[in-house]
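Class, discuss our next protein.
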Amino acid sequence: MRAGPLMVAGATAAAVTLLGAGVAAAEPATTMPDDGLYLVGVDIFPGIWEAPGPQDPAHGCDWRRLWKVEGDNTDMNYIIGNNYTRLSPVRVEIKAKDVAFKTVNCGAWHLVPPPPRTGSFGG
């Protein structure tokens, strides 16, 4: 059995539509479950983040806001802001201009919801 011209045209149009659609990009996350390096705007949203703090009291929580990602990310010239603390909980504001955020031994981070707008001056 031969496919009719209309059937071939329909199949071709469907294939072109699928190819043109591409793969949808994933939305940045509102959690950082593990230690690691997270790209701002790609892996995570900018905003105020909170973590429980060091899981092992012998080792502190180490976080870094980075303006460049290269190598092992220990180059002090690439750090915008950082902290090494044994206190709990830990909070940091990750800004939209930051390129990445690195976390070690801080526990799972979550994005803190913004406070409700009050309608008064400044909010």
